[in-house]
Design brief:
One of its GO terms (cellular component) is plasma membrane. This protein is mainly α.
Length: 178
């Protein structure tokens, strides 16, 4: 991971952590607010994933293409959440879970075989996001409060992991990426 990707991961991590803390601090939020917060996170993560793979040439082409595709899909799911087209908790849960699943898979697949600092954290983040998505998809009848708890926990862990990954990227001695 180069310095540019490190900065992007750090920004995404900080934003995810802040959104997770906001979700914990405001557990009685309405469906619109929850949809907006989680959608905003998915949109930001999707855009940052696209930027990471467009502007960091140190990744293999197949990994970059996969990262950009997953980033665009995650961003689109974020837009769906923010528009709150569903109006129901169940559809919101499924949309957010699909976003987490895609983001987790993208993190895992683009990290495997990639050498550098923070790769273990990136794979761990991907696994955590996939497990959170599976939990939400297996129990789509979760209430809004339970979903907010799971979602806020996921955002906090992913945010902390993103911050650690970003710092590792910034500390890397990769001479190619500036």
């Amino acid at each position: 991971m180069g310095r540019k990707a490190g900065w992007l991961a750090l920004v995404a991590g900080v934003l995810a952590l802040v959104l997770g803390i906001v979700a914990f601090a405001w557990p009685s939020a309405t469906l619109k607010v929850v949809g907006f917060l989680f959608g905003l996170n998915l949109l930001i993560v999707g855009v940052i994933r696209v930027l990471q793979f467009v502007f960091t040439p140190d990744s293999p082409v197949a990994g970059r293409v996969l990262g950009v595709i997953f980033g665009v899909l995650v961003g689109l799911l974020g837009i769906l959440c923010m528009r709150n087209l569903a109006g129901s908790v169940t559809l919101l849960l499924v949309i957010v879970a699909l976003g987490w699943l895609l983001e987790g898979l993208a993190e895992i697949f683009t990290s495997i075989g990639h050498r550098g600092e923070g790769v273990g954290w990136r794979i761990g983040l991907g696994v955590f996001a996939v497990l959170a998505a599976i939990a939400v998809l297996v129990w789509p009848g979760l209430g809004l409060a339970t979903f907010v708890f799971i979602g806020a926990t996921t955002l906090c862990f992913v945010g902390i992991g993103g911050i650690i990954t970003g710092i590792a990227g910034l500390r890397s001695r990769d001479p190619v990426a500036v």
